Automatic annotation (TrEMBL):
It comes from the Bacteria. This is Amidinotransferase.
Amino acid sequence: MCPPEHFAIEYVINPWMDTGTAVDAGLALRQWHFLHDTLAGLGHRVHVLSAQAGLPDMVYAANGAFSVDGTVYGARFRHPQRAPEALAHQGFYAAGGWTFAEGNHVNEGEGDFAYLPGAYGGLILAGHGFRTDPAAHAEAQEVLGRPVVSLKLVDSCFYHLDTALAALDDRHITYFPGAFSAASQRVLAQLFPDAVIADQADAEAFGLNLVSDGRHVVLNAEATGMGEKVRAAGYQPIHVDLSELKRGGGSVKCAVAELRPRP
């Protein structure tokens, strides 16, 4: 995670951003700390990446890379305003001794990649349409050695895969069908017939931008309907208020890069 010490809406690169609306910097930081402490309280070790001045979106730490079993596929951001973030993330992984592969194609890390180690022997779901080039999916497959299923996003409000789909555990997902092309909807229905299906209200409340450890599902406070859906599916929802980060187009998952070291 990376604290929102420099978080602000200084430009518009997604439909949620509005430079005319000021961010409450103090509230953003308090909300971030609550998320950090919630994850730590669940028993997870949380590493903190130092924020850098001039990079207001760095708080969305999930976008910097994507890791699977000790190997990291680095981001190459679509928008120049965020491009320097990739180097900061690369430095973090280099210091930790991870095997790092720099992305040659435009991709935004875990924003557009999700991993399910228990599904089909280990499966990566990958989004494209707004931020990540389809060529990055093939590149990630070569780097990470796991099959990649490409999914087309068609609604700009759900510009990253992690705004429209989430892994609930090693084998199960939840997603909002309306964010995907008809063909991608058919692929998801075939691969995950028992998925938890979200509706547009869930997605607009950033209820799919969640982090799950297979038992606890941490999600945005506004997403009460989504919380009931995951509870009915056997998980324990934990709501956190990230209203300020939502102004920039992100919530829980955007703020958390999940680290997957070698087994």
